[in-house]
């Protein structure tokens, strides 16, 4: 008779350990066992690389030494943020001084048409630029309020002056708008004279070829054809010079009329919200409404 108690004991399964990690048999790793934050760091580095690449492209595409309203209109929001880092902008009285110098230089070169003044608002200094077609008020924070073509011309000037890397030129001593009678009829007269000389040579050459073809029997049509071409080119150049002179004269007269309008005005235009050198509540209320919106 067999001893069943011994066989049952030997065939019984071994007891499992309650803790799988106790015997080191569980080699599986959790998906969170990797380095924490590695994907986020890679994403941040990628974003910084993209911003640097965009900034380099913007700096190569736009000429910030001659930055104007048309360039500002072409820039997208991403390009603007890449080119102008808000954390490095100049503000306060230093910004006003830089804007003042930049505007004086541009008024002297006729890039900006307007009268430049220093006014006050809430006890703080502001820069006012106005003309017969609009105005702009610059605050120490870099905020610009206004309307018309003056506002359009001033906004890129303030943006450039707020950049630490931009060197503001030294304005000339006589930077203000000129007297209407001192404005010349036109510019580029030397260029017009050169074009006139070329036109005269073309006309003489064409006339000589035509006369030679008529007097002498050259037996070819090339000479009279070339003479006609030279003659037409000369007449075209003369017409171009005449048109350029008329355009210069028209622009000069228009510029003189605007200067006379500003000079003859006893006070600032009615749309400029400044009285006795102080910004009125009208402009302040408009600014507050813009901030709320």
TrEMBL record:
Top-level division of the source organism's lineage: Archaea
Bias (Basic and acidic residues) ranges: 1-10, 42-60
UniProt keyword Transmembrane, yes or no: yes
Provide the alphabetized UniProt keywords.
Membrane, Transmembrane, Transmembrane helix
Q: Region (Disordered): which ranges?
A: 1-67, 272-293
Q: Does the keyword Nuclease apply?
A: no
Q: What positions does the domain DUF7319 occupy?
A: 75-276
Please list every transmembrane segment annotated in the UniProt record, as residue ranges: 193-215, 221-242
Kindly give the InterPro entries that the UniProt entry links to this protein: DUF7319 (IPR055743)
Q: What is this protein called?
A: DUF7319 domain-containing protein
């Amino acid at each position: 008779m067999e001893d069943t108690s011994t066989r049952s004991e030997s065939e019984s399964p071994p007891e499992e350990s309650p803790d799988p990690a106790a015997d080191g048999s569980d080699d599986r790793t959790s998906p969170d066992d990797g380095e924490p934050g590695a994907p986020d760091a890679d994403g941040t580095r990628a974003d910084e690389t993209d911003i640097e690449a965009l900034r380099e492209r913007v700096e190569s595409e736009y000429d910030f030494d001659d930055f104007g309203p048309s360039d500002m209109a072409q820039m997208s929001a991403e390009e603007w943020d890449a080119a102008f880092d808000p954390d490095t902008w100049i503000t306060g009285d230093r910004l006003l001084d830089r804007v003042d110098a930049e505007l004086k230089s541009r008024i002297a070169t006729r890039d900006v048409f307007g009268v430049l003044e220093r006014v006050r608002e809430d006890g703080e200094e502001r820069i006012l630029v106005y003309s017969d077609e609009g105005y702009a008020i610059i605050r120490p924070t870099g905020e610009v309020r206004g309307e018309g073509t003056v506002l359009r011309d001033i906004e890129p000037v303030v943006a450039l002056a707020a950049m630490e890397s931009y060197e503001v030129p030294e304005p000339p001593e006589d930077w203000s708008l000129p007297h209407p009678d001192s404005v010349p009829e036109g510019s580029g007269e030397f260029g017009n004279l050169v074009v006139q000389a070329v036109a005269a040579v073309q006309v003489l050459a064409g006339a000589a070829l035509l006369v030679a073809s008529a007097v002498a029997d050259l037996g070819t049509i090339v000479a009279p054809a070339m003479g006609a071409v030279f003659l037409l080119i000369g007449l075209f150049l003369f017409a171009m010079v005449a048109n350029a002179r008329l355009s210069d004269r028209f622009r000069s007269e228009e510029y003189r009329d605007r200067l006379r309008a500003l000079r003859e005005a006893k006070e600032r235009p009615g749309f400029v919200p400044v009285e006795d050198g102080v910004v009125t509540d009208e402009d302040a209320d408009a600014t507050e409404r813009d901030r709320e919106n």
